[in-house]
Amino acid sequence: ERDGRFPLGEKRLMDVKLGELGSWLGKRDFTPNGVLASIRNGHDRYYNKYINVKKGGIGGVAMLLVGYVALSYMWEYDHLSEYRLWEYDDLRVPTTYSIIHLKAL
Amino acid sequence: MTLSFFDQFMSPTYLGIPLIAVALTLPWILFPTPSARWLNNRLITLQGWFINRFTQQLLLPLNLGGHKWAALLTSLMLFLITLNMLGLLPYTFTPTTQLSLNMGLAVPLWLATVIIGMRNQPTAALGHLLPEGTPVPLIPVLIIIETISLFIRPALGVRLTANLTAGHQLIATAAFVLLPMMPTVAILTSIVLFLLTLLEIAVAMIQAYVFVLLLSLYLQENV
C-alpha cells in the first residue's frame, strides 16, 4: 500500500520523499498538545525498546546520558570556544595568573 | 579575571532556552513510573529497592504525624542526588550550584516545620529553645543563642550550594590552571583530578543525604 497517494501529513517520516519534506512538516501538529504527544511518543518508544526489557543492561540509561552530555556541549559551545589552553612554552611566566586566554568578543 | 573562574556556573542560553531548564527536567526522565506488573524491569526494580530502603530509614525516628512527609522527603532526596550526580558528567550544568534553587528548597521546608510546630504544639516547640538542665543564670543567654540557631537553619541551602560549588571549582582550577602550568608533572595533576572526581561523587551523594536528613530532624522536633 505504499503508493504515493496517501494524505501527506499522515505518512511516517521514512515514507516521505525528500521533495515533500517541507509540506510534510507543515502538516504536522505543532500545537502544545501535539508537541507533548510527540515527546511522549518518542519517550515511550525509547523506553520500551531499551529500558523496559527483560534483561536491560546499562546501555539504555548510558545512551541517554551520553546524549545529554552531547546536548550540553552543543548548548555551551559558544561559551566553551572562548577557552584556550596555555599556549606558550615560555618559562618566564608573569606572576599574575593570566591563564585563561579569552578571545576578544 | 574573577569572572572567568566562575564562568562554569552560568547557564548558557541556546535558542532562547537556558541549559538549566534542560538540566532540571532530566531527573524526570530517569525515574520511570512503575507499571502494574508483578516484576518490573531492572531499572525500576533497582530504584524501587533504593526508595524503599531510604524511606524506611528516614521515617524510623518520626512519629505518625511525620509520616505524611514521606513522599516529599524521598522525592527531594532523589531529586538532589540525581542533580548532583548528573553534574559530574562533562559539560553538564549543575542546577544545585545556584543559591536561588537551594534556598528555594530550604527556606519553605524549614519554615513549614517551624509553623507546624508552633501551630500544633506551641509549648513544646518553644520549649526546644531551652535545653534541660541548664543552670539558671545562663538561661537568658541560652535562649538568645538557641533562637539564633533556629533562624540560621535555612543555611541548609547554603551548605548544599557551597559544597557543590567548591568541589566543581576545585576541579576546574586544577584542570585549567595547574595542568597547563606544569606539563612536566602532569601525571601528578591527573592523579589529583582523578581523586577530586572521586571526592565529588561522594560529596554529591552525601550532600543530598544531609539536606534531607537535617530536614527530617527539624520535622521530628516539631511534629
UniProtKB/TrEMBL annotation, chain A:
Pfam family, one: WRW
Listed GO CC annotations: mitochondrial membrane; proton-transporting ATP synthase complex
Principal location: mitochondrion
Any one biological process term the GO annotation gives: proton motive force-driven mitochondrial ATP synthesis
Entry's transmembrane regions: 56-75
GO molecular function, one term: proton-transporting ATP synthase activity, rotational mechanism
Cell location: Mitochondrion membrane
Keywords: ATP synthesis, CF(0), Hydrogen ion transport, Ion transport, Membrane, Mitochondrion, Transmembrane, Transmembrane helix, Transport
Entry's family note: Belongs to the ATPase F chain family.
The protein's name: ATP synthase membrane subunit f
